[in-house]
Amino acid sequence: MDYEELRPLVLQALKLKQVTYITAVIDQTETIAREKGFYKDVRPYMHSPGGIKHYMPKEDREKVRQIIWDLILQRVLTPGVNELTPDLPHIRVTDYGKECLKSMEMLPHDPDGYLEYLRKEIPQIDDTIMTYVTESLQTFLTANLLASTVMLGGASEKAVLLLIEAYINAISNVNGKRQFELSIQRFGILRKFKEFRKRLDSIRKSIPRSISDDLDIQLDGIFNLIRNCRNDVGHPTGRKIDRRLAFSNLQLFIPYCKRIYGLIEYFNQTSI
Question: pTM here?
Answer without folding.
Answer: 0.84
